[in-house]
Amino acid sequence: MTLSVLSVASELYPLIKTGGLADVAGALPGALVPEGITTQSLLPGYPAVLRQLASAEAVLDLGTMFGGPARLLAAEAAGLSLFVLDAPHLFGREGGPYAGPGGDWADNPQRFAALAQAAARLGRGALPGYRPEVVHAHDWQAGLVPAYLHYGEGPRPGTLMTVHNLAFQGQCPAALLAELGLPPEAYSIDGVEYYGAIGFLKAGLRLADRVTTVSPTYAAEIRTEAGGMGLAGLLRDRGPDLFGILNGIDTAVWDPARDSALAKPFSTRRLAAREANRTALRREFGLDDDPTAPVLGVVSRLSWQKGMDAVLEALPALLGLGLRLVALGTGEAAIEAGFARAAAANPGRIGLHLGYDEAMAHRIQGGCDALLVPSRFEPCGLTQLCALRYGALPVVARVGGLADTVIDANAMAQAAGVATGLQFANATRDSLEATLNRLALLWGDRAGWQRIQRNAMACDVSWSRPAAQYAALYRAIARR
């Protein structure tokens, strides 16, 4: 039996992306089709989104929302069935989805309250002929969706709140309660109140029928005071309603056998063809043309959370072992500057591209020998899943989804033939340096290295199993 879901997200690949949220929101609808789930995705009408809609039909006049007219558009794009909130006064500005040149948009509370209000109206059947059975809200930007449905009148659909990163919670002053269209009774510990403010994510976590996060280990970590970021007590209270469902990746987009971004396609049966991508990557980043030196890759935000400061501290040891490094990303100014200085001081051994380039990310995955992911916390992580698929051994901290997706190449795992990468305890210089030593030893055993590569590439990193779990959860919510 088919079940209808409305997915609400602030970004959606390939239309608009700043991080993994977009990848998940963009890939999950298609993966759910074999499970009998039909998904319509609601997202804001940013200029970048509207430019990519070949045709769009205005299907619902939403009246005035936070100082200007708003309407709902229906469209098809990139194989996705879309509702787009067209409110130029809120979203018709160039820049990022959440910030411009001067920092975060000051009206973000109103912008994403409008998105949540539109979702709630769709959920209650405001659009003739459409009424979803479940509304799936992603991250803090959609956190008020369960609140508007909870405090509204009449029958409502079931609600699911997914946390992609608990560090981003969306808070605003309590004085905005009435302006955001929330009733006085909503401002309580069992509603939207959060340490004297309004908490968008907190509201969703408290008021949704079920809560998920993007890996089983992260679901356990956020129940602890150390990992809960002020919400551990609430998440412990939600106990039976909180689930960790591991992310997947779009294996049609990330397919080394058919990837047009690569110098040469390859597979487990044609693993020797990967060498052409190693050569091309060294050339692109200006590294010495030495095929015997393993190349480590970084595709990441250059931030403390991602452990990039530890990478900088471990660079002398990395270079001392004869390893090379290529890095793609942008982030905190001090860490960016550190990578820039390191690249300038070590030409031929360190290559850097500050910024983000999707095709370059594919080339790094297809050409590096190992991928560094030393995060201090990581809800799931997608880059290590791509690395597995492309035969770049993931070198990961033992946290969150990294712990759930990479099998450490310890002696027993190698003897059993199941190792897929390397894990280490935490993002410190000592821990990372010890792991780089292990990596160098593994590289010396070329036959052993290729066995681990083949194991990694054989991993099922698709959405197949996660989609089945989401479908079962949707059906349970719809029957609530």
Give your account of this protein's structure:
Belongs to the glycosyltransferase 1 family. Bacterial/plant glycogen synthase subfamily. One of its GO terms (molecular function) is alpha-1,4-glucan glucosyltransferase (ADP-glucose donor) activity. With 480 residues, the chain is α/β, with parallel strands linked by helices. The chain has two domains: 3-248 and 464-478, 3-Layer(aba) Sandwich (Rossmann fold); 271-458, Glycogen Phosphorylase B (Rossmann fold), CATH 3.40.50.2000. It contains 18 helices and 20 strands. The protein has a nine-stranded mixed β-sheet, with helices on both faces. Strands 17-16-15-18-19-20 form a six-stranded parallel β-sheet, with helices on both faces. β8, α5 and β9 form a beta-alpha-beta unit. α4 (108-123) packs across α5. It is globular, with a radius of gyration of 23 Å. The two termini are 17 Å apart. The model has no long low-confidence stretch (mean pLDDT 97).
Report, as a whole number of angstroms, the end-to-end distance.
17 Å
Query: What would CATH call the class of the largest domain?
Result: Alpha Beta
Number of domains: 2
**What does the radius of gyration come to?**
23 Å
How are the strands ordered across the major sheet? 3-4-5-2-1-8-9-13-14
Average pLDDT works out at 97
CATH architecture annotation name of the largest domain: 3-Layer(aba) Sandwich
CATH superfamily of the largest domain: Glycogen Phosphorylase B
Q: Describe the sheet with the most strands.
A: 9 strands, mixed
Number of helices: 18
Low-confidence stretches: none
Instruction: Give the helix level as a range of percent.
Output: 25-40%
**Which percent range describes the beta-strand content?**
15-25%
The outline comes out as: globular
Could you say which structural class the secondary elements and strand pairing correspond to?
alpha/beta
- In CATH, the topology of the largest domain is named Rossmann fold
- Strand segment tally: 20
